[in-house]
Structures are given as C-alpha cells and as structure tokens.
Amino acid sequence: MALEPPPEGSFTSFEAAEISLHDWSESHGYAVVLKRSKKPKWKTDESGPYKYFYACDKSGESRSQASGKRQSNTRKTDCPFKLTITRKSGVWYLEVRHGEHNHEPSLNPAQYPALRKLIEAQEESIKSLTRSHVALKHILLNLLQQDPNTHIISQDLYNFRAKLKQQELRGITRIEALVNMMMEKGN
Ligand SMILES: [Zn+2]
Q: Which of 10, 14, 52, 169 is most buried when burial is the number of CB atoms within 10 A of its CB?
C-alpha cells in the first residue's frame, strides 16, 4: 500500500475537509494530527482560524536512538508529510505541502490518536441518542445522513467498512448496507 497524499480540493466547511482528510489517511495507512492553526489578523465576520496545519503522526523527532529501547510501531520518524486546510473567500481548501512519508504504512487504526479523537466525538452523540432510547440502527443512520462520509465509530463500523466494500461492488448504497448489517446483528 502506497502512502498516497489525499487529493487536493475544496470543501464547503472545515469539518467536511477534516473528515475527508482523516478518512483518506486512515484508509491509506497513516494518520494526520493537527499541529497548529492561525487566526486572521485582519477584520472579518468569520470566527475562528482561517488556516490549519497538519502533519503525519510520525512527524517530529525520533526518540533517542541511543536509549537502546525497542522501537515500537508508534515511534516518530521525523516524517516530513504535511498539509494545510485554508479558508479563502468562505471556501476551505485542502493543500498538500509535502506529500511523501519516510516510513511504512501502519495498519492498525486503533493506534492513531487522531482517529480515536474522532471516534470519541461521535461516541458522545451516540451516547446521547442512546439515552433517548433511539435504536442503534437509527443512530447510525442518523450519523450517516448527517454526513455520508462519517467516520467509523466503533468496532462494528470497522467491520462494516469491509463489508460495505463487498456490498458496494454489488450496487448497494452505504445506508442500505449498514441497515443490512444491523439487521443481521439483531439490532
Ligand atoms: Zn508519515
């Protein structure tokens, strides 16, 4: 698997750009983390930063090579991969600043802090819907309808993703495939 950079493009919201970014990187064997953001110095009606800087989660100094410690899968490699999401005239642009990595793909999404953060955020809305006695099936549908590119939210959805690929090949939509899976699980 090549560690391909995400396609550059424009998005109607920062959230859409970020979700697309994480979705791409996760399915291409790496994770990106937000490093910093810049707020406009000029007068604007739009709140918040206008520019976000992302790097590979293996960016930064590699740990002391003299320590003699066993190198783990999550060690930093000073990876140069980086990109930005920038607002220009109300549109968000994803731009790759350095498209190459200096390490092999990682295949275990659970080890990615960036991914866990997204999962946790979605778990909150699932929990609140669960407290309102909304069935799991409807919760997931709800998430998908809000954002068809919604991120994986649990082990169920990791499994779902694999299954979806098979079903998409047979022309079934993402939502239909999800319902089928939930039905099979007896939810
Ligand atoms: Zn990297």
A: 52
| Full residue range of the structural domain in which residue 147 is found | 112-187
Query: How much distance in Å is there from the Cα of 65 to the middle of ligand 1?
Result: 19
CA distances from 22 to 19, 78, 129 (A): 5, 20, 24
pLDDT band of residue 170 (cuts 50, 70, 90) is low
Q: Residues 56, 130: one domain? A: no
**Residue at which a domain ends, from 68, 85, 106:** 106
Residue 162 has a CB neighbour count (10 Å cut-off) of 8
- pTM assigned to the model: 0.55
Instruction: State in Å: Cα 143 to ligand 1 middle.
Output: 29
Nearest residue to 83 (alpha-carbon basis) of 154, 28, 1: 28
How many structural domains are present in the chain? 2
Residue 85 and residue 32 share a domain: yes
Distance (Å) from CA 111 to ligand 1 centroid:
14
Residue 152 CA to ligand 1 center (angstroms) comes to 21
84 with 120, same domain: the answer is no
